[in-house]
Every structure is written in C-alpha cells, then in structure tokens.
C-alpha cells in the first residue's frame, strides 16, 4: 500500500481567487518534497482550487497555475513520487453546486478534459476528481463523476482516477448511505483504472475538528464496513485524508488503522492530512519543525507512520514520554517507567515493556517483545513486530493491547485484557488470552486460538486453523475468510463462517451456528455436539456432514426445517432443507 501526505497550501485563500501566490496561497517546495520522500513516502496529494486552475467556466486553463503544478509533478517524479491532483472544492465550482444550472456537468467535464490533456504525458500523476462532495445525492454526483471520467479518457489519458462518493465521502458512512449501491456499481471507466477515495477522521463525529480520538481502535472500527464491502465487490479503496493529534491514544489509533489497511489489499493507498508550511499549531499537522534550519524535528505522528514506510531514519521525538532506539546488534531492553516509543534495530532484540502505555516497534530481526515484568496493572501498549520471526508475549498484561506481527512467521500471545492482534504476513500463531479479543491472521496459513471469553477471530487469506475456546454461556465469532480453513467451536454459543474454499467446521458443546459459505464444506458433528444450526448446506455443491459413528433420526423443527437428532445427544437444524430431502448423500 502506498503511503503519503497531503501537501496543502494551493487550496488556501478560497475567498481570494485567483489570489496572490505566496500571500493567499502557496505550493510545495523542493525542500518539503525531499523531506517526505526521504521518509519513504511515495505519493503526494496536492489539493488546489478549480477557480485558480481555470479562471472561467469552459475557459482556457490558467498557465501560471499549470506551471506551479508542473514544477511539483516534475520534481516529485525525480524523487519517485506520485502526485494526486485534486480540486479542493467540496463538490462545487464558481460558487454553485456541480450539476446545477449555473455549474453544469458539462463545465466540470470541460475542466477535466483540458486538465487531463495537459497532464496525459505525466506518468506519475493521479487524477482526484473532487474533494468531499456532500450536498448532492449519490445519484446526482454519479452523473457528475461519470461526465468527468468520460472527458478524461477522451483525451487518451490513462492514469488512475480517484472517485469520491457524496456525503463527504466518509469511509464510516459508505455503506450506511447509498454510496455503496449507487456510486459503487455506477462508475463507468473504460480502462477500469480507478479507486474509490474515502476520508476518515477518528474524533467523535468523524469531522476532523476535534483533537481527541474516540479510542485506540476506532480507526479499525470505522474502516471495517467499507473494507468488507470492497472485498465483496472487488473494489479498490484510497484513504485520501486521515489525521490525529499527538497524544498517546491518538498515536495508537493511527498505527492501528494503518496496520489494518496494510493487512487488507483492497486499500491501495493513503495520504495523511496534513502538511505544508502554513499550518502553524494545527492539531493534526505533520510538518516538521526546523525544516531548512538543519535541526529538523519530526512530529510524533511521523514516528508512527515511519513504521510502515521504507525509511530507516531515526525518530526524533515521542508523545508524552521517551523515545529510544535499538542498535544494529542483538539488544536486551527493559523500558523505563513512563510512556515510551521504542524502535528496535537490525538485530534479534528482546524488549520488556514498562507499566505504562508504550509503543514498541521490533523492526528487523527475530525479536522477542514482552509485556512489563512488574507486578500490578500494566499499560495499554501498541506493539509492532516488524520484519523477522517475532515472539510477542503479552500473557501477563491485564489491560487491552494492540499487537501486530507484520512480516515473518510470528508468535503472538495476548493477555487478560481486550486485545487486538494482527498476524500480518507469514504463517503466524496467535493465541488470545481472557477478555473479549479481536484477532486477524491476515496473509499466510495461520493458527488462531481463542480464549474463554467471547472473541472475534479472522483467518484472512490462506488455509487457517482457528479454534474457539469459549466457555459455556459465552460466544465467539470465527471467520475463515479465504482458503480451506479448519474452524472449531468451543463450549459456548459460537458462530463459524467458512467463507471461500473447502472448509471444515466442527461443532462444539454449545448452541452453534455453522455457515460454510462457498466451496465444498465438511461439517463435523461429533459426540458431545450441542444444538447446531447449519445455514447454507448445499449437498449438490459438495457439502457433507460427518457424525463420527453416531446414529440419527430425522424430524421436523418448529420452523419447518429438517432436524437431525444424534445418538450422542446433539441436534442439527438444516436451515432451508426439508426432512424428506435428507438422504445418505448428505454424509461422508
């Protein structure tokens, strides 16, 4: 996933158009581009005003503005960076709503035809249609977007296009509005080279106007629905704006969200909001202090983002605590008291956390990252394993932590709090502790072991082995997702989703719901099976039941479904199947 920055400034001075360059608005300098390229960022989102780029509707483009953009695009190309050129007009132009009689779709298409023709030969340019349309309905905006796309492609320009939805194009609201049902299937691009651009802030109302985030997991929660929609519809997503303040919870939320996106390939990129020299003390700014002075100091948000970038530059600051870094050799580190950001070096490191809220990055090497060795309550930590075969042991931690294995075959162990664990790439072993946990195997053939509470476990891609150990009265959700997975229920009331592939679903002693999904699935109903509901059983599609030598009788459930009574004491409700349809071919 490409990760970059919004270099704002050309969109400033909206009340002064065309305005004066350097007084009302500004463009990124080479010094700024060098800084972000040096951090490993690969894309710049450059917001500008339509009324500056084209002084009148249907008129020629403004040569002086094009020259400024050409300079940014050309220098960014020399640093290996893409540039997203996007009008920052919120769905309007020249004081009127796009699609209105005053600013019709033909005027919007005229601009994009001229603009795309100018940049058609710039291979590092991405066309962002518009920033945050919100007054139009989705159907109205669809007409505007398709008119612009048609104009772009008519010039011969083949670059990627970023398409927002209406209603501010919020990621959290994509499927709760009709963006998913109107914009999603309605976009027409003859080259099919586009992604949907969404924005997401983590404050109470997703507006990006408050300093405090809701929680450290809110980013993951707000991206989940649109991510699942994109995976189901084979769509591509780009997060055009996201930003947080500098407190520890905000930084943890930032890391959690970016890690979640990297674990889901439907996310093709993201650009942080914002940077640029005119932000001053803006709460989300990531512009370093001292740029050009020789004493550059990174913002704490950059310390988090660097974990996901290719840069090896040392971090220079930490929020609410101390910043420590490992060496190129094998380090043994015990973190001091106080919130610490620790970045491991190249060797095989062992790191023991403190009793406070730490951010721990293993980076390269086979690392062992362990929760605080102190008595009493431990801090709410965020841990990134990095490259290598890492062991992250938080079994002694009583407060929920966020643990990311990232690359390599990792072993992740949660504690007694409500943890979030991500395996990342590789064949990972993830064992959650007590508490209500969320675990993702992600890429590779992973093994996930649940705890005694109510957990949610996702296998991800690969053929995964997932076991719920929920106690009686509890209930876990298990998703195999892709691959041929083996899912086992516990003693609680569990729900198992096989997903794609030929999956094996084993019932437990509670009241379980088993949903095989696509593929020829095997339902294992052994002695001790409780009350089971099987949804979507398809004998003709290769689904089978295995009852382990038990005998059975077939009756009718109260809802009319076939109801199997097993000699071992269990019952099986076959949803949508009548009793007279059950025959020997159902078993195997």
TrEMBL record:
Any GO BP annotation: glucan catabolic process
Keywords noted in UniProt: Glycosidase, Hydrolase
Source domain of life: Bacteria
GO molecular function: calcium ion binding; hydrolase activity, hydrolyzing O-glycosyl compounds
TM spans (from-to): none
Residue span, Glycoside hydrolase family domain: 10-275
InterPro entries linked: GH, Glyco_hydro_5, Glyco_hydro_5_CS, Hemolysin-typ_Ca-bd_CS, Hemolysn_Ca-bd, Serralysin-like_metalloprot_C
Family as reported in the entry's similarity comment: Belongs to the glycosyl hydrolase 5 (cellulase A) family.
Protein name (Swiss-Prot/TrEMBL): Glycoside hydrolase family 5 domain-containing protein
Organism of origin: Methylobacterium gregans
């Amino acid at each position: 996933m490409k990760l970059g920055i919004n270099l704002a400034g050309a969109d400033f001075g909206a009340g002064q158009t065309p305005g004066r360059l350097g007084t009302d608005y500004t463009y990124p300098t080479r010094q700024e581009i060098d800084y972000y390229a040096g951090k490993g960022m690969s894309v710049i989102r450059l917001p500008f005003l339509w009324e500056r780029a084209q002084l009148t509707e249907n008129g020629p483009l403004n040569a002086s503005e094009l020259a400024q953009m050409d300079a940014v695009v050309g220098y960014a190309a020399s640093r290996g960076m893409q540039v997203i050129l996007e009008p920052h007009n919120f769905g309007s132009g020249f004081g009127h709503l796009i699609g209105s009689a005053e600013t019709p779709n033909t005027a919007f298409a005229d601009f994009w035809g001229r603009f795309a023709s100018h940049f058609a030969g710039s291979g590092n340019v991405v066309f962002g249609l518009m920033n945050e349309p919100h007054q139009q309905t989705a159907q109205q905006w669809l007409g505007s977007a398709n008119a612009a796309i048609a104009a772009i492609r008519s010039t011969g320009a083949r670059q990627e296009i970023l398409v927002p939805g209406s209603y501010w194009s919020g990621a959290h609201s994509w499927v709760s509005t009709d963006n998913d049902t109107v914009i999603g299937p309605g976009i027409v691009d003859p080259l099919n080279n586009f992604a949907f651009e969404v924005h997401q802030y983590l404050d109470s109302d997703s507006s990006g106007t408050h300093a405090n985030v809701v929680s450290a997991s809110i980013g993951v929660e707000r991206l989940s629905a649109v991510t699942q929609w994109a995976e189901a519809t084979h769509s591509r997503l780009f997060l055009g704006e996201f930003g947080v303040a500098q407190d520890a919870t905000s930084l943890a939320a930032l890391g959690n969200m970016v890690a979640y996106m990297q674990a889901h390939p439907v996310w093709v990129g993201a650009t942080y909001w914002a940077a640029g020299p005119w932000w001053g003390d803006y709460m989300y700014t990531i512009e370093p202090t001292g740029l050009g002075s020789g004493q550059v100091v990174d913002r704490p948000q950059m310390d988090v983002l660097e974990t996901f970038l290719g840069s090896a530059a040392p971090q220079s600051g930490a929020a609410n605590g101390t910043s420590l870094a490992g060496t190129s050799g094998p380090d043994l580190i015990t973190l001091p008291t106080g919130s610490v950001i620790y970045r491991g070096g190249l060797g095989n490191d062992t790191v023991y956390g403190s009793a406070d809220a730490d951010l721990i990055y293993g980076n390269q090497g086979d690392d062992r990252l362990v929760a605080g060795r102190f008595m009493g309550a431990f801090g709410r930590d965020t841990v990134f394993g990095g490259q290598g075969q890492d062991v992250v042991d938080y079994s002694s931690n009583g407060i929920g932590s966020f643990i990311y294995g990232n690359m390599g075959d990792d072993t992740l162990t949660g504690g007694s709090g409500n943890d979030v664990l991500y395996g990342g790439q590789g064949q990972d072993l993830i064992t959650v502790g007590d508490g209500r946990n969320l675990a993702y195997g992600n890429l590779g053939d992973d093994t996930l072991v649940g705890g005694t509470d109510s957990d949610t476990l996702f296998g991800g891609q690969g053929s995964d082995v997932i076991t719920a150990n929920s106690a009686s009265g509890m209930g876990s959700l298990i998703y195999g997702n892709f691959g041929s997975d083996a899912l086992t229920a516990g003693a609680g009331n569990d729900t198992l989703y096989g997903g794609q592939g030929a999956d094996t679903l084993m019932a437990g002693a509670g009241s379980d719901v088993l949903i095989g999904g696509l593929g020829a699935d095997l339902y294992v109903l052994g002695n001790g099976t409780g009350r089971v509901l099987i949804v979507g059983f398809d004998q003709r599609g290769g689904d089978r039941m295995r009852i382990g030598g038990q005998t059975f009788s077939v009756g009718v459930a109260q809802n009319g479904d076939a109801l199997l009574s097993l000699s071992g004491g269990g019952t099986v409700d076959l949803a949508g199947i009548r009793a007279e349809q059950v025959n020997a071919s159902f078993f195997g």
